[in-house]
Design goal:
Blueprint: H1 3-15, H2 37-66, H3 71-102, H4 112-135
Helix pairs in contact: 2-3
């Protein structure tokens, strides 16, 4: 294939209609909202602690079956890690509750957060209304005309 043939092949490839390509990644809306950062951090910590506890319990069980000297220390540490894993799961639950209370994601109508937001909204509206009234030129009443004509 000489230079002219390659040039002709390239020209014919350019003249073809271009097929539109579909994107590789299509963004879909999430089914649930993302967990808040403190709750997600506590959940990741709990999963790591629980997985290590399960591994530790398996090592304790297998070393007990083998009659190894490592069995007794592993059983003791497995008990301690079970307590730590339980504590970490409770930490996730407490962190979630605290985050919900602090950020006002309580669905009860008598929520204190909702009441506080309502009061703040009223105060902002009153402040805006006061600013509007101060900057407007008010209507003149009949006795306060500019001229006597």
């Amino acid at each position: 294939m000489d230079t002219q043939e390659r040039h002709d092949a390239r020209q014919s490839a350019r003249s073809r209609p271009e097929i539109p390509r579909q994107p590789l990644w299509v963004e879909e809306p999430a089914l649930r909202r993302r967990m808040p950062d403190p709750v997600r951090t506590a959940a990741v910590r709990a999963v790591l602690i629980m997985s290590l506890t399960i591994i530790q319990a398996m090592v304790a069980f297998l070393s007990t079956l083998a009659g190894s000297w490592l069995a007794f220390p592993m059983v003791l540490s497995s008990v301690a890690s079970t307590v730590a894993a339980t504590w970490s799961v409770l930490d996730v639950w407490v962190t979630r509750q605290v985050w919900s209370q602090r950020n006002g994601v309580v669905s009860m109508p008598s929520s204190s957060a909702r009441r506080l937001r309502r009061e703040r909204r009223r105060a902002r509206r009153a402040a805006r209304a006061g600013q509007r009234d101060g900057t407007r030129i008010g209507r003149r009443s009949a006795d306060r005309r500019l001229s006597r004509a």
